[in-house]
Amino acid sequence: MYPIKVTIQVLLFCILGSYAIAQTLKGTVKSTTGENVAFATITLLNSPKGTVADKNGSYQLTLTRRKYEVSVSAVGYATQIQQVTMTDKNTELNFSLNPSTQDLGEVVVTADKTEQNLLTIPIAVSSLSAKKVEDARIWELANLTAIVPNYLYSELGVAFQQIQSIRGVQVFSENPAVATYIDDVNALDIIGGGFQMADIERVEVLRGPQGTLFGRNAMGGVVNIITKKPTNRTNGFAELSLGNLGLQRYNAGFKTPIVKDKLFFGINGVYSKRNGFLKNDTTGLGKTDKNIQGARVGDEESLYGNAYLRWFPSSKFSATLNVKAQMDKSDATGFMLSVGNEKLAFANPDKIYLTRIGTHQRNIVNTSLNLKYYGSGYTLTSVSATQAIGMAYKDVDFPGYYHTFREKEIGEMLPPQKVFTQEFRINSNAVDSKLSYSAGVFYFNQTGYEPTTNLAYELAPGMYAAFRNKTVNNGLAVFGQIGYKITPSLELTAGLRYDNENRKAIFNGFGDAVFTNNVLTFVRPDSTVTGKYTAVSPKVAINYIINSKSSIYVSYTRGFRAGGVNSQRLPKGISQTFQPEFSDNFEAGLKATGMENKLRVGLTAFLINWKDLQFYNLVAPFTYARENLGDVQTRGLEFDATMIPVKNLELDASLGLNSGKYQDFKLTRVDFATMAETKIDVTGKKLANAPNHTFYLAAQYGIPLAKTAKLSLRGEYRSVGQFYTDLQNTLKQPTYSLINTRINLQVGKLNAAFWVQNLANTRYLIYGSGDTSFGRSVRMASPRTLGITLNYGF
């Protein structure tokens, strides 16, 4: 009882102790023409305090004595940040906001796990606001391609079987190379991705390794998604989207204070359904079910929910409970399906060739509790999260027939993958201190049943070879980062992270288990293999603030992707484990605003040395396993800009240039024609899934029709340069371009948008084999899609 008593006493002290001597901050929010801005959102950066202005633009906050950064935002206006120092007197702080059609406003990001002005941090970040997410119709990660310089998205049939590539750093396995965070929760496994993008506050894409603060699997970068939180203002929305290919998408949300300034509730949900664009062709495939000739393949159905409960018992303490859940299913699945070669796919982009049409279902639930205590000059944070993922599929023609299996029946729902993560962190929050810091510990525990290694392979009707694989992983990391302002303009940042990870796999080999006539028989007991891995991830950066409108920086960062266990039986003397990958990133960047805040630009140059790539190799006669095979060096330039050249016209542009090659990289394979062992040297070949350029240009023009009515016209052009999907550089995706358009009519609180994605109906690969020595397989991207979206907010 004693520890519990002490914990309660400490918690009460934190809550009650915050009711120290406090004063009032009040003011008004007006437009530059003097009109009151109703219901503007007032946020104190790195503080739980915030409020919403009333209908007259007036606000009031009770604050303790210290310096704050106050951010004010409102629909139709540019965000503004001001500093204020609270003393023993009440303080007045007024805001005069420019229309967003004339001023880009200031951008707040959490790239360093604290809220900061984008201009002041030495990291290459692409930040997309809620408005840009809506205008660009970003419903999924695939829509980020080319908007973010040097970003490429690929997938094999479903959104949770994805490859994200940043600057060419990518992978396709259970451990991603680009970390995806949603509201502070990391999707450790690739199957944990694919959440619906709904009710988004902003999307931040950190380009380059982020190992020091974000840890494992962030060697390519981080996609950080932040959803909208409830505030003091009751609001909600309902949205309907309909389109071709049977598209239906229903999205709704509601947020309200339960107790003003203290307790808040928010919820939103999405139901979406869409038909696949592929038609099955069984011509020449032999005896098949006649009903599947011409049948549709690739149907998708998804149900998503996101609920918040936020509690602010005092000015120094906050607690946020969040639950996200999603179910994805299909009776005509595209999971793991592809076409045998790219010539056939480009000749018939809407066809697939299957002898069975399969099904799949994935269930995922994320629960997190975020606790924060705001002290004098520091913030303590605890983020606890659990994740449960269940997966089932049946009759997947790969070729051959595959079904999920563990012990009961083919196509069964696998035991859920369970993940627990815990992070404790302390960050400085003093606005005017020379010293800033972030330090903490991170722990994770993961028990998984990976769906592509827990399956039944059909040998004959009623007879299956059973593959089983259970993984038990855990890790502990300690990290710290310090920034020191040598002068008011020059800041030095240094960070270090140490990771210690343990992995265990319990699995069987081919023929070790059979499932016949609904009876599972073990020919040989399961094998158990363990591995232990450590990694050190340093960071050094120098940032120079030229003036209030521009800065330059140089940095070195290291990233790593976790090592692992080959979950297959290997001959004695052959290592069952493989080591982590590492990347060293050297970067220089410039950030600037100009033209009276009508222009914002970023320019970055980078060099990456990517070492010890994990890839399948011949390790024994006719036996392949993952090894650390070789290195890659890639270099490039990135440019992004936003501009308001004239009133009501906004331009967005980005350009990524990338040149990467394999170094000292040799594959060992079997020539199946001669049965001889062969060596394939890919040294000097271009890095796979790394376009030589990405280019994006968007123009949006608003036409005021009345005081409460506006018409917006938008056009987007995206170009993705030529790249190879395979190491051997034989499977090529030529340069392709996409044109997207959107027309939006806003009348009061109602929006009606007509949009077209891929207007020219360009056909290109969304996936291609990473290694063509085992054969060629590709998957075509969706054709032209168009639809209408109706949104009503209150």
TrEMBL record:
It comes from the Bacteria. The keyword Ion transport applies. It is found in: Cell outer membrane. It is a multi-pass membrane protein. One of its GO terms (cellular component) is cell outer membrane. Keywords: Cell outer membrane, Ion transport, Iron, Iron transport, Membrane, Receptor, Signal, TonB box, Transmembrane, Transmembrane beta strand, Transport. Residues 352-759 form the TonB-dependent receptor-like beta-barrel domain. InterPro entries: Beta-barrel_TonB, Beta-barrel_TonB_sf, CarboxyPept-like_regulatory, Plug_dom, TonB-dep_rcpt-like, TonB_rcpt_CS. Its main location: membrane. One of its GO terms (biological process) is iron ion transport. The keyword Transport applies. Residues 119-222 form the TonB-dependent receptor plug domain. Belongs to the TonB-dependent receptor family. This is Iron complex outermembrane receptor protein.
